[in-house]
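LOG
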Amino acid sequence: MTVMSHNPADPRDLVLSVPALGAAGTAAAVGEARAAWPGWLAMGAAARSAALTRAAEAIEAHADELVALTVREVGKPLAEARGEVARTAAIWRYYAQAPYAPSGSVHEPAAGQGLLLTRRRPYGVAGLITPWNFPLAIPTWKAAPALAAGNTVVLKPAPEAPACALRLAELAGLPEGVLTVAPGGAEEGEALVQAADVVSFTGSTGVGRAVVEAATTRGVPVQAEMGGLNSALVLPDADLERTTAHLVSAIAGYAGQKCTATSRVIAVGQVYEPLRDALAKALAAEPAADPTEAGTVCGPVISAAARDRLAAAIDSARAAGATVLAGGATPARDGWFVEPTLLADVPADHPLRTEEFFGPVAVLLSAADQDEATALANDTRHTLAASVHTRDLDAALACADRLDAGMIRVNAPSSGVDFHLPFGGTGAASHGPREQGQAALDFFTASRTVTLLPAGQPR
């Protein structure tokens, strides 16, 4: 099998063609990573910290190259690509300090002399399966904490984004076997889950469930992030201009191809009509455009299949009685583009209200009050992120207490992420411990309890 990556804004542009490793090659890569593990762990905190710092420096030195590659390989608009590269370097720097952090604690024994210690130790080889939408940041926020904790890493990137992953690993410049990229598809992913000592996955719900089942059967730790059906609650007192800008960013930014993108806008009470008009106008002013242009917000979707699936969903909703308030079209041009789309009157059982479509499409809903809005937002198994827009602190706190989402942002787009804080959702959106921040370091290590007693002391 050959992995072929095409530019979604110009499908004639072949970004990279690389042989897939296959199951045997992936198993061999894990074997090499396992052989490299003792040496990487024995290097100690100072050497691992220095290695991660050098990776950050290399990314910063090659930022323009990485920005251009990200725009070309996954169609990410220029401004967002610059932000991702900067965040990628920052994540490496953040985890470069982790090797110096305490790895456990000391406790008093129940009786007599001695010491009771807890220590966190790495598992060995971390198997990472990552998506294409953040081709530098997501591999980094998985690999950097795993490496900082003393694991070695085998990374299986999405078939749509092998070039970014390979260049990232090359720039990191780590010792042989410490960070290996395994290009491929389902076969390589399955082989990695069957061989790694700890598994971290981000991708679709169906594949994520299979990963969880396979890893759990083997008895290895696993976490899976599987997307979200995210809501924005707009209360009557919200700043309409600011809220509209936030919603446009969360719906149309990077063509809605973020697991934290807003796909349901819930307008409470009298704000419905002014919000409807303002949001429709603002989305119409951000057409799908060339991602290399500095002002582009909505670039292409990742593939022809994604474009066709979104177009079919919009047509289906329209046929079921929905009203298209903005967008609704796929431009007749080179590349895989879908106009930012806002729909009203979508039936409650339509897939656009119940499933994640990963595109620049949102459904506008109305709620009589805050209680109804919260109930609508919670009416999904994919509760990853939510945003609340209001000037009322009491209302904001009430929403934060009652929303099921794993991440709640007040007066901000749902699509923002802070890499030093836990990342994850509830229900079918996530499985296992959180990612990012200290939570990631905990996931990639196991706690051990050590009892130290004086020689000859009776017990």
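LOG (cont.) second protein
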Amino acid sequence: MPLHISKSVTLILLFTGFLGISQTAFLSKEEAVKQTLENNLGIKVANNNVAIADNNQGILNSGYLPTITAQAGANYNRDDSTIEFPGQFLTDGEGAILVDESTGNPIARPDVEINKAEAQRYNASVNVNYTLFDGFGRYYNYKRLQEEYNLSSLQARETIENTIIQLFSVYYEVARISENVGVLEETFANTKNRLTRAEYGFEYGQVNKLDVLNAQVDLVNDSINLMTERQLLENTQRDLNIILNQEIESQFNVDTTAVFVSPIELENFVGDAPNNNVRLLQAKSNMTINDYTVKNAKSVFLPTVGLTGSYGWNLNQSAASAFFPGTNNTTFSFGLGANLTWNLFDGGSGITQVKNARLLLDSQDQLQQQLALEVTRDIANAKGNYENRLKVFRLQEQNVLTATNNFDRSNERYKLGQITSVELRQAQINLLNAQTSKNLAKYNAKLAELQLLQLTGQLLNVSY
């Protein structure tokens, strides 16, 4: 009978087994990109900004449409009045003053009382104003708003590109750790088999107790490394869920393959980068916006011509008075007009605005030239980093083959008793380090490629 594994080692084996990742859904790179574009909160905000700019550049915000206003009013009055005639007397039809026969005094003209005298006034009108010409200010403002929409689209694209880079930084980290977990599981299994062989060998007197103890210590270390890496994997998956804007505890397997763009295609991308780099395109858009701002400022030197039109209705209903009968007066009116305004001199503010706009345009031109130099440098650096990391990855692939061959041969020699367990362990650690280094180099090279693709403006046009 072989020796039984100690209780502590048994608990480690059980606990490590429970930590194994159960079968979960597979999250492809394409699906990750799709979910990010649909659900990422930063991208949603960027899309809202584009929608706002789209509204601003529409015909309803252009100033080319007339303004139409409608007005209506109603007034009601009710008066109670008493009209006195001091010093006035009643007369007959021929102008003779009438006399009271009983007193012989002239008869005073009586007061007139008018109660509940009602008057109503109603009016309604429609007025139209249209600017026929404003010195081309409206035209250049409309063109500026259209270019601002284009700029907001480029800004949204930059947000999407940065988010995609962030996505794959975490996605490939999940992939790297997943591969490392597989490597550590294999290392753990090899150490477990070694412990079993050592226990059999010790039982039959082929090895000493030291080999068993060394295997137990190595198994504990391997199990700790495996548990730590699995916990790191869970944490990194939560980071990815944040970017995807999905349930934080969602678990999934990811694609661990890395396909690189062909060198010829990459060279074409680099050569066409000035026409596709999003930062350069934004700089060009800002130049156009500033140019329109200068032209718009010049409109202050030209006259403004406008047209007006109106149609109105009025109804006045007046009550009867002491001297006049009540009347109803209805009026319909229609009017057309034109006006010209020419601000011959505004105190110099218009001239100042034009000068400042030209200076801003010149500053934007300087910034664009500086940015072109920086982007050229960034592309050269990114290209060099990518090529170097790709070479490191190829070397690490070869190193894994060498380390695997070395471990296999060391394992056979250990079985034959030609090397010690310490030497076998060293070969095992060398293989582990080579495999994890290869995983790191692979995803470092892939991320360097994505960063280069972003600088060349092709990040959203390639498969991942």
